[in-house]
Task: structure prediction
Amino acid sequence: MRLTEDQLRLYDEQGFLLLPDYISPTEVDLLRAEVPKLYGDKSLRNVVEKEGHATRSVYGCHLVNDFYNRFARHPKLLGPAKQLVDDDVYTYQFKINAKVAFQGDVWKWHQDYIFWRNEDGLPAPRITNVAIFLDEVTEFNGPLFLIPGSHREGVIEVPPLNIRPNGVYKDAPEWISTLTADLKYSVDSSKVAELVERYGITAPKGKPGYAIFFHSNLVHASTINISPFSRTMLLITYNSVTNIPAGVDLARPDFIAGRNYSPLTENESEAAHKKHKSISS
Amino acid sequence: MRLTEDQLRLYDEQGFLLLPDYISPTEVDLLRAEVPKLYGDKSLRNVVEKEGHATRSVYGCHLVNDFYNRFARHPKLLGPAKQLVDDDVYTYQFKINAKVAFQGDVWKWHQDYIFWRNEDGLPAPRITNVAIFLDEVTEFNGPLFLIPGSHREGVIEVPPLNIRPNGVYKDAPEWISTLTADLKYSVDSSKVAELVERYGITAPKGKPGYAIFFHSNLVHASTINISPFSRTMLLITYNSVTNIPAGVDLARPDFIAGRNYSPLTENESEAAHKKHKSISS
Result:
């Protein structure tokens, strides 16, 4: 599966590419069926919201769940990822962002790459994200807010937020502040206002199975979820195999910064599965 | 100015009535011009957000500002209010909800009437609100979320949230908890989920000058504002002159529960002003 020239150009221009009805309902159902198990994990991989109970994110899903592991090698994800990074890739991160009904908290305005550069020593933004909607994303349940084109600003240097985690995370390792609502690197309001003035904001919405590839320097955020509808989203980050993190401290565990640098190969059985499904449907 | 039979039926059915392009741009500009003065008031009438600086709401605008006082008697507001309440009316509340860019906090799911009944002793929900957009309301700046039809449930009895105000309001009178983000009477999640299942959610959006009349038992909420766009909204509450609060404790000051029970009369100079404008435009 390859993106077209037009799709690649759109990604370059706006820093993201929305792909409606991209993952089949059958596959979405299979992914959703695993979610309760992943939320049941009580290790640090399961990051909870401030109030201490609801899952905020689960990291390293591909390390503990076979189906998720295979899913990272889905031809519809891996093909485009290799094009966008222009290299072979491996799984840098594989997480669920839960944004649970009535409980999902804010993600402040931020870029992703600065976390990976500062915390993991990632040399270059030769890395891409894909977000896959496991629930319908509406205006009510905290859709991603994207500033289209903001990736062209490069890294917006911001000072780290030096707040010790508190509440449930008061004794957690320092890196927890790269994952919680008190986010370590966020873009300040005046800069966001300037970027939105220049580029606008957009909030892609759509049914389960929609996917968005987005650039690691794209400025994005999401609000709290006060609706009765969870906004479960899968996020896979693919890094170039020649862009291995090194030089900083690699303090974050492998469920946040993957250590298996072998190039991913397309999961042919998954492709076959899809072919079978499309024949039978 | 009178609402049509269809408009009245719609209000009865859905609990609100959206009126696009209702207040003229000239009048909106005049209203907006007064806002900085009102935010400058450092009394308890100016309720601030949790962090202690940004204005959350300003109450009793009509008591301190002549233009706002006259505006409450605008024929396009007073005419429909009298129809909806089926009586002469007076100003029960007149506030600005600021929902300031990057700082506006949540309004939890709630009904208005339960506050007025429990705190002020308001005998019946013979009272209506009108919200007037002073900024464009978009999907990004915390629009009102309404559950259309939920007013037909009547009062949803909920226990008060017994949290003492803290931070900037730790020494404030108890009634402050009827105005802050830790809202005293809110509808719990399971009830909201049930209502949304039955009735859905809608979030009216539109340009400055749009107005929404809504029922005092309509369940509504709004999320935080993480956008660079403030969502300034004027809210006037008109109560029937034969529905005077009595019997509880009337502990809240007159800028929250108005004490001037004289029937409002239409401001003819305002009507004349409008006529003049429409001729000159």
About this structure: The longest helix of chain A spans residues 25-40. The beta strands of chain A are 16-19, 46-48, 55-59, 89-97, 107-110, 127-133, 144-146, 211-215, 220-222, 233-240. The two ends of chain A are 20 Å apart (CA to CA). Residues 156 and 187 of chain A are 7 Å apart (CA to CA).
